[in-house]
Specification:
Helix content: 55-70%
Strand content: under 5%
Distance between the termini: 34 Å
Largest sheet: none
Order of helices and strands: HHHH
Structural class: mainly alpha
Oligomer: single chain
Number of helices: 4
């Protein structure tokens, strides 16, 4: 049986994690966490608002352009959350 996901439960653990990330200079989500974020209703709605706003200024609004815009917005959003979760 696989062990469950690792989680932090105390402030010293959180501080130790932050120190490690600052020392390494990088941070990435694991696939499971990223999946939870990408499918969170609040994040989905925010991304859709961003896509609608962006598409209003485009001359071409084909489905592929809209999908590419959505993909770019999701990527940027998850990247910024990974770097600054507040």
């Amino acid at each position: 049986m696989r062990p469950g996901p690792r989680y932090l439960s105390t402030l010293p653990e959180v501080h130790a994690l932050v120190a490690t990330v600052l020392q390494a200079g990088a941070f990435a989500f694991d696939v499971e966490t990223l999946g939870v974020l990408e499918h969170h209703p609040d994040l989905e709605e925010f991304v859709e608002q961003q896509v609608r706003k962006h598409v209003l200024g485009l001359k071409t609004t084909s489905e592929s352009v809209i999908e590419r815009t959505r993909s770019t917005k999701v990527e940027a959003m998850t990247k910024s959350i990974a770097l600054d979760p507040h």
